[in-house]
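Ticket #4471: structure output looks truncated?

Reporter: J.K.
Steps to reproduce: submitted the chain below (392 residues) through the standard prediction queue, then opened the result file.
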Amino acid sequence: MDLFWGTTLILMLPAAAMSGWLASQKSLRAKLRESQNRIPPEYLAGLNFVLNEEQDKAIDLFIKLLEVDSQTVETHLALGNLFRRRGEVDRAIRIHQNLIARPQLSAEHRALALLELGTDYMRSGLLDRAEGLFCELVDNSAYSEQALRALLDIYQQEKDWQNAIGIACRLESVSGDRFGSETAQFYCELASEAIKHNDFHTARQHLHNALDMDKNCARASLIEAGICKIESQPAAAIDAYRKVGKQDPDYLPEVTGPLFECYREIGKLDEYRDYLHEVVATIGGITPLLCLTDLTEELEGRDAAVHYLASELNRRPAVRGVHRLVEYALASAEGDMQRSLYTIRQMTERLIQGKSVYQCKQCGFAAKNLHWQCPGCKCWNTIKPVFGVEGE
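Returned output as attached by the reporter:
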């Protein structure tokens, strides 16, 4: 009997396995049919329009679908982002505007749609509209940091420095990042605006705030020195200019010329010569070297200046230094030597004129003039004088 039941169970196992497999296949087919039934045919048609580059037709269909099934919100957001990345901002705006207009949207989806629409407006240059949307989001914990960063960008573009300062302070508390250096630059912008209206008292207040935010803000000291010069305070200007070398030595080439004027005004060129010797020995740079060469010529004569410049160029070659040395030599050259020196001078002139004087440390943007905010990457205080044989 036991043998009989054992044999029967063995024979039934394949049948049971086959029955289970058929049941699972039936269940799978049912789930597939159910899934297909949940995808409206219009949705598939919309995807086909996207693939065929018929975006306007696709947008119409997806907006219609939204009215039927609010579960497609994330798909619409993704589609809007796709259009924006492709530069089709008008289409992205249309999608995001229609999303926001739907009363059935959850608060989270509406906030995300507002963020995306604000980004669309920024991309298209509609900063006032973008500002309104981001201001609505700054108290939303999920999107506060993104909204504040966008507002900081907007206020910088609009040169609204007071609002930029306020937003930077809020952003510090929300993100944990430090914005002291950027805020110092905003105060410097306000100081520059005050100077244009001859309001030196207000300008100094802004500069004081700038140095509170960033004690190494060389720009604040440069502006302060400029005010002192305007007010005929050369000794105070000297103090401010010399502070720059301690805050950021890269900017020393910016102060050597103005310092020369101030020291001349107070009759202490010997003191300035000592300062320049220290700068050239410890930091270098062709601008301080040429300034010291001019001062040596004025105080000790032409031969002393030529000898000093030639000895320094042997240690630190620089195109601008060679150009000056050639000019000295031309003054006494004749015949073939003079013609050869003219050729060399033309070559050094072309090298000097063809090179950018400043470069951004962040993105490499090259410039002929000093910008405190890089026109390329929009970073502050990253454009510095170029150092090396063809630079400083």
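Triage note (M.O.): checked the attachment and the full token line is present. Residues 1-18 have pLDDT under 50 and may be disordered.
Status: closed, working as intended.
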